[in-house]
Amino acid sequence: MDLIRSTILLAILFGAVPALAQESSGMVPAPVQATEKPADVVRHAAKRRVNAHRIETATVPAKGAALSTELARAEPTETGNSEISAGERLRIQSALLWSGDYTGSLGGEDPFRSAVKNFQKRAKSRITGVLSAVERANLLAAAKSHEDEFGWTIVTDPSTGVRLGLPLKFLPQVRDAARGTRWSATHGEVQVETFRLKSSELRLAALFEQEKTQPSNRKIENSALRDDGFYISGVQGLKKFSVRAYARDGEIRGFTLLFDQMMETIVAPVTAPMVSAFSPFPERSSPFAALAKSVEYGNGLVVSADGHIITDLNLVSGCQVIVAAGLGNADQIAEDRNNGLALLKVYGARNLAPLALASDPSRKEDVTLVGIPDPKEQNDARKLTEIKARLSGGNAIELRRPVPMAGFSGAAALDAQGKFLGMMQMRNFVVASLEPAIPPVRLINAETIRGFLAANNVATTPQGDDVRAAVLRLICVRQ
After folding, report:
1. In terms of residue numbers, what domain contains 408?
2. In this model, does residue 59 exceed pLDDT 70?
């Protein structure tokens, strides 16, 4: 019985809802009157969560089943979906998973529509497959109670670039992993670990075989491989495990979930929402996960021949020692909390190439971010990397393609002509929404930086065009 229940759980996690890891369009509400109150939805959702293992076995994939079933992307079939954002649809999908109503397709119907019908049937509403405004409010209210219960947070992992949802009340500890980031319970009862590697390092099929046999105590219960992804699930010693990976643009990205078998009934309610939120190559960024590292890397920009350096205040907060690579220790001498700027100084450095701040470059949509990423991204090298982006409202910076951003905060932002626009800041915020209102990457513009330097009597250079020469790596050492 335990094996059947576990198989169903892992099938839901890796078979029934893979499409929700991708961006998708929304659903237009219909004017249908709901009869269930939010409190009733919460109560029914809790009941369904406890009985999640009773979901129809028709959604459980057989071993070796075709991945067209396991990993197929469920696109909405109804028309007129343009009135609701993709983020709102994802919020509703996540809520349907929390409530236990998302059980896969029924008779070939769109899984999202089937889930809405399940919800309406429980709520004793008219079964239409389209949520009314009242039904949507009730559903989201129930999901909010679960999010609060588990400490649900949706973030982008800066080490791998993947977006994922995490029950942080289960996973208070976070640290670097060999190929990504690991979140874990205090004693390791539950672990979530992201990974990213280049396809040139290991092909998808080879990684699939490797994950099935390493560690050696893994017993595989379900696995499937296709051209652009795979999943594996089973038992690893006294723990349940599952691995999910996707390949695109010469990279493989994914995550591993590992938990004690005795934790299964506790972990079960959150596994499907995790898959709903997971996106290996997200089109829209979420706030970056805050990683309390003892050693953190970022960028600084030399702004004077006397050794002054500006950087992201978040990067150097709480540092016992700050090292400017190639120059020595740096002291923090000023800060601007309102704008997120810190001013550092190194002493005795010579032959510096300060940043030119005299002229105002024209604001352009196209932006190039120039910085030195985390050493893990470059096999401990210290080379400049350029990332293409664009500016949007509120000085938000949107990446042209999803890339890891570990160690990139404080990088220079250049316009299309190579002129200095400002400094990039990475922002870490705890959110439960798939559609964040606060930009995770933003521009601190050149004018703000000039004002900050002037207020601290830092004389800047009026000439010099090589912005890249002013970029250096900063290393923050915390306790």
Report:
1. 295-477
2. no
